[in-house]
């Protein structure tokens, strides 16, 4: 507890809260787009992390189960402000969409906004944001032909062989080839971070993660308490899913629709609402929980589905910094970071590009938004607002 509470910098915590809320209100487009927003805000603008450290953190979170973008945000919060900073970063980034989806569940379930023009405009914003992030990361992480080849292989495999475990397998293979190719390479030393979390506390979090994974189904069978059953379903969904929010949706459907917790049309209405709000798609759990048991159920579902992600990132970060400075590990990380670029390009094509660029006017608008971000150096929130307004205008004309 002393490690968690000591040296609390309230100014930094307030800064983390303000920035994470801004990201939570403006980060549309899914987990890959979120990484682009984080890169623009935390790396390019505020320089809280260097490019290599950000790429290392992204690689770690891509390897872990759960919502990768949320784990990256939590990790940055911990690096900047300790455990409390990680909690605040999570709350700021997640709560806007949680509140919106609970309201959708309680009041606006029958409102059809799936085809609204401003929604399509925000999808085009995601194209510009992700393209900008990919270009910046590719310049840093794939400077030579070997790393470009690893990125190309990762792109090819993740596009043509789309399974739950493809991404994890690609990262493992990239680490292996990176180790073989760069075991004698001495890269620039990444910045070190001081974690106010001990390895002992990290080990406790990892033990709690696995303990709950085993104990909750047992408690569910031994009791008839509905909230324990809900907690178990959402916790397992958050703990066992690789690949981000879109992968968790069918799992949640199997958990709650056939069992009668909610109807199929309610599930689909919530899915449409989840696509319309910023922030992590895992907050779809808040909608399901609110349909089942009001706003209390929404908050419980949110806590349960994100708890595994928090335990995993807190449990691994105390070990991660020392591992990534190990010369034997750095070669593997070079390969993994190159693969992350390929994975980002793969996700950029589908679902971001394929669901956003439907007409020539969409491509022109995406080019304008990209230019605002890359050349005119406009802040991301301005690009988001322009995208929403432009989407409405395009929808009204076409």
UniProtKB/TrEMBL annotation:
Keywords: Cell membrane, Membrane, Transmembrane, Transmembrane helix. GO terms for molecular function: chromate transmembrane transporter activity. One of its GO terms (cellular component) is plasma membrane. It is found in: Cell membrane. The keyword Transmembrane helix applies. It is a multi-pass membrane protein. Its main location: membrane. The chain crosses the membrane at residues 12-37, 57-79, 86-106, 118-138, 150-181, 201-222, 234-252, 272-292, 299-320, 332-350, 357-375, 381-397. InterPro entries: Chr_Tranpt_l_chain, Chromate_transpt. Belongs to the chromate ion transporter (CHR) (TC 2.A.51) family. PANTHER family: CHROMATE ION TRANSPORTER (EUROFUNG). This is ChrA protein. It comes from Domibacillus mangrovi.
């Amino acid at each position: 507890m002393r490690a968690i509470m000591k040296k609390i910098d309230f100014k930094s915590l307030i800064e983390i809260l303000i920035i994470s809320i801004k990201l939570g209100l403006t980060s549309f487009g899914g987990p890959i787009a979120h990484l682009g927003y984080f890169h623009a805000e935390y790396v390019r603008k505020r320089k809280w992390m260097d490019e290599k450290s950000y790429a290392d953190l992204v690689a770690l979170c891509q390897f872990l189960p759960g919502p990768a973008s949320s784990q990256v945000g939590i990790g940055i919060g911990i690096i900047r402000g300790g455990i409390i900073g990680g909690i605040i970063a999570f709350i700021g980034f997640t709560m806007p969409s949680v509140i919106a989806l609970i309201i959708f569940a309680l009041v606006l379930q029958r409102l059809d906004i799936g085809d609204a023009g401003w929604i399509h405009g925000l999808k085009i914003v995601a194209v510009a944001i992700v393209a900008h992030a990919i270009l910046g990361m590719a310049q840093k992480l794939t400077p030579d032909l070997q790393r470009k080849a690893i990125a190309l292989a990762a792109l090819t495999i993740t596009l043509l062989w789309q399974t739950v475990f493809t991404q994890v397998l690609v990262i493992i293979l990239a680490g292996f080839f990176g180790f073989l190719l760069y075991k004698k390479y001495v890269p620039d030393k990444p910045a070190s971070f001081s974690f106010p979390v001990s390895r002992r506390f990290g080990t406790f979090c990892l033990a709690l993660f696995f303990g709950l994974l085993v104990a909750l189904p047992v408690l569910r069978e031994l009791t008839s308490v509905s909230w324990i059953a809900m907690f178990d379903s959402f916790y397992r969904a958050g703990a066992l899913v690789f690949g981000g929010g879109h992968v968790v949706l069918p799992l949640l459907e199997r958990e709650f629709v056939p069992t009668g917790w909610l109807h199929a049309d309610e599930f689909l209405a919530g899915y449409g609402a989840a696509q319309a709000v910023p922030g992590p798609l895992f907050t779809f759990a808040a909608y399901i929980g609110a349909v089942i048991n009001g706003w209390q159920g929404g908050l419980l579902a949110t806590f349960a589905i994100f708890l595994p992600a928090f335990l995993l990132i807190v449990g691994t970060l105390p070990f991660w910094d020392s591992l990534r400075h190990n010369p034997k590990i750095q070669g593997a990380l070079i390969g993994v970071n190159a693969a992350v670029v390929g994975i980002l390009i793969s996700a950029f094509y589908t679902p971001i590009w394929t669901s956003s660029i439907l007409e020539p006017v969409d491509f022109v608008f995406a080019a304008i938004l990209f230019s605002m971000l890359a050349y005119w150096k406009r802040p991301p929130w301005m690009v988001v607002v322009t995208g929403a307004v432009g989407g409405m205008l395009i929808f009204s004309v076409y």
